[in-house]
Amino acid sequence: MDSDSKDGKKIFDLTDILEEKNGKNNQEVILVDGRGYKKNVKVNNIHDIVNKVEEKQLESQLNEEVIQKVTEITERIVREIVPEIAEKIIREEIEKLKKISNSKLMTND
Q1: Residue 5 within a domain
Q2: 64 contacts 72 by C-beta, under 8 angstroms
Q3: Average of per-residue pLDDT across 32-51
Q4: How many Cα atoms are found within 13 Å in the side-chain-facing hemisphere of 36?
Q5: Which range of residues forms the domain containing residue 50?
Q6: Is 19 exposed, middle or buried (0-12, 13-18, 19+ CB in 10 A)?
Q7: 13 in a domain, yes or no?
Q8: Which of 37, 36, 39 is closest to 28 using CA atoms?
Q9: What pTM was computed for the model?
């Protein structure tokens, strides 16, 4: 290659071509219309964002399942225990009323 063949031809460095194809620029500051902009260092890939959304959906589904199970268990416990407690309280109140009624009958005689 002589000097005449290089004139008028643009010589590319292979890294420049690779960066152009990838759309990446390794400069810290990018100039657009004479204004300098700092390069955004943190890049979120689409798969990272999708993973975060999926994690939140799984978390909310898990929370809903936990709430549903807790509700079912609580209702079952209440159905089993409350009637027994209510029956015991009602029997005690009936006994108290009987005693009060008997004591009033005894004092009136």
Answers
A1: no
A2: no
A3: 63
A4: 4
A5: 44-102
A6: middle
A7: no
A8: 39
A9: 0.36
